[in-house]
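From the shared-data thread, chain only:
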Amino acid sequence: MSRRLHIEIDHGRCVGNAMCVATEPDVFAHNENRQSEAVNPEAGSPGRILLAAESCPTAAITVEDADTGERLFPPGSGS
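Structure, as tokens:
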């Protein structure tokens, strides 16, 4: 069974450069304000989602394990 992820986008930091959309287009899309949204976290692989988060130049993406609350990116304390 694949790990379920919870993805948060900080719209105060997102500048809409679309690195996440380019990396994992089945998961990320731009909203009407040209900021990223996690539209379908189940559609992507955990590795590609983490790569998309790591590619964000403003570190606007937080990824956690949906079942345990463990923060996977950025590294640090979880929920």
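The mean pLDDT is 93.
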